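Can you make up a polypeptide sequence alongside its tokenized fold?
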Amino acid sequence: MKPIRSWVAAGVLSQVAILATIALSSGLSRADAAEPLRVQIDRLISFQTPGYEALAAPVALDDEFMRRVTLDLIGTIPSAADARAFFADADPAKRERLVDRLLATPEYARHMQRTFDVLLMRRLPQKNVPLAEWEKFLRESFAQNKPWDQIVREILTADGSDPAQRGPARFYLDRDGDVNQITRDIGKLFLGVNLECAQCHNHPNIDDYLQSHFYGISAFFVRSFVMTDKEKLVVFAEKADGEATFESVFEIRDKVSKGPRSSGMKLFEGLTISEPKFDKVDDAYAVKPDDKDKTLRPVPRFSRRVKFAEWVASSDNRRFCRTTANRLWALLLGRGIVHPVDLDHTGNPPSHPLLLALLTEELAARQMDLKSVIREIVLSQTYQRASRRNALAGAPEPRDDQFAVAPLKSLTPAQFAWSVMQATGETEAHRIALGEKFSEETLFTTLQGYEQRFTQLFGGEPGRPAESFESTADQVLFLANDPAMMNFLLRKNGNLCDRLLKLPEENPPAIADELYLSTLTRLPTAEDVQDVQNYLAGQTGDPRTACMQELIWAIVTSSEFRFNH
């Protein structure tokens, strides 16, 4: 079996070692160390693939870039007014200014809240912690730009005993404190390893994943349990005794088992964590359990869970940094450098090992500042590639793992909901109606029911969110005739239908411009203008209004609208 340290070696290289390796391989100078991260990203992407420039798509035009980065950073498409201003701006630094503006908005924090809610909780149903409290914790954390390791430590140490700080405890409590589920999810989310098939035996297909690895993590949580305390709060309590034991089902089957083995607290090939010894079990408690009072929450003097959070969620833990870097890349580029992102092992090496090592070290050096790394990734030429190549006939198609062409990414349910509302002008109509009361929070509160409706239909099965584009009969019927969709199309003060109807009938190009900028963040082609002109020809009064609504509906339900490209 290959030692796991072999596949994490790239993740523990120092920044100096990374740059030295790149320099030796490609003739770069040490002066390149001062270059922005985005430049280093592009160099390592190109360096990995001979003839990359011939394979790669050109940098996307302003319209494609603006739509993509706005969807990725705030979860919706830009307005027509913002698109016009951006297209007209001749400043070479305008893309950088756009990115900085988006990252500074409250919409960024809410989009990150939605993204990481799905990542961490998989849309599991609410059980013991109100969803709103969990969402508030995430949103405020991203609004404050808390380091990612701090957010994770707060989640992994939360027990729910403080009524004012119950949000982060949802991670444990809405999994019902199931130790095996917690172990599996922590491996996937924070360590990049899917140990699900290593719970009952060593993984049958991946030599790097052992049963002892599963129970080394499980040992940190085996003493934890869900209970209801004196305040009638469901909390995640912890005992001071109890060990994780395991036995291979194959050894039991073959009658060669020597009985259950005990596992200490251990992460893969790392050192086993020791804990203080006490002469008596009672001495191990700051608050002792009471057999007569089942509402008394025991508090051990040494918490295995707290120790795990300190050990795992740290910029010093390169496995944690590597997994985080890989997930960020996958969120923005459509696939991980190690892909799938939770199968990081020697049999599935990274497509760009030096790049993953660089991003790992950058995250550590930046103290797990996700926003700063996201900023550099989206300003790289790699991220900004067009989704189509101007390739010569017969030219080879690049592979997805070469990151030479922007991928098509289906909109998430929340992105789809808010993009439809932005495109149809529903958000603008509500902004006008709210007047001085308008804020991101009030607008979200007013319209969140629509987001929930989209999530119910397009979000997949609870606990198993959809990972790729799918189309069901319910979704088709919703888009075709649901009252919510029909409501978006009705003429309201300031919405798209209203703006189109106020434009001169004799100026179809102006109508087409407003229609396409509002929905697809691009100007219409000559063919698009002709289609609009032909469709509206001779229409006046109510029939003209109906035609406008049909044009809007056709675009927001089109394939071009449904994908981030």
